[in-house]
Amino acid sequence: MNYSNICVLGTDQRMDYMAQKFYDIGYDVYRDIKNCTETSIVVLPPPVGDVAVREVLPFLVTGQSVYGGAVSKAFICECENRGIDVKDYLKWDNVTFKNANLTAKGIIKEAEGIKNINQNTKCLVVGYGFCGKAIASQLKALTNNISVLVRRKELKSDIEATGYGFLNMKDEYIDLGEFDFIFNTVPALVLDGHMLQSASSSNVILDIASSPGGTDFSYCKEKNILARLSLGIPGKVYPKEAGEIIADAIIYDLNSI
Q: What is the pLDDT confidence band of residue 1, given thresholds at 50, 70 and 90?
């Protein structure tokens, strides 16, 4: 099907820049679901959940294509039942990789707003997925004292080959107190009370894992450890770049159909 119009919903700046990107390359762009037709592509902001089920689904028809981020199982199920094609752009590797770089840029900027990072600053990155790799890589421009904490010991050679220190979560004791900054990317409670026993008020923990994060924030508050949960950095801090990343990925997908 030849799609000529796109309905971009959501009021945050990221969606504004996304709509502008579509408009600039020649699409008719609507911002109200009531203007949507059966040939419209619909783009939803993350997360796509109960509100979208109530307020968007009634306007969609069989055969329509919907793109959303962090799409709930309930929305996917409803779309499948109605013959509506739904895709989660936040699960695409090209979006994930670029968003990870924006996230790394933003969380390091936040860290430097707390205290300066220099060659003597010791940093620990927890997790070595897209975001963990991006944070560690961007930290290299500021300090050589970077370690990575993971569960999988088979990652040791890759981590050390990149010039980072390797730590295994399964080790009996990990001295978190030696690090100035701890960046958590793991969406599970890895920095729990037991792990944090070696931490102190000199540590700064910045957690970007999906809510509720991977840090015991209550423990940190009790022990006077500065710990922050920083979510949605690309959309909040770099809305233009984030919006254009998603728009480009959707355009590529449409051209592949």
A: very low
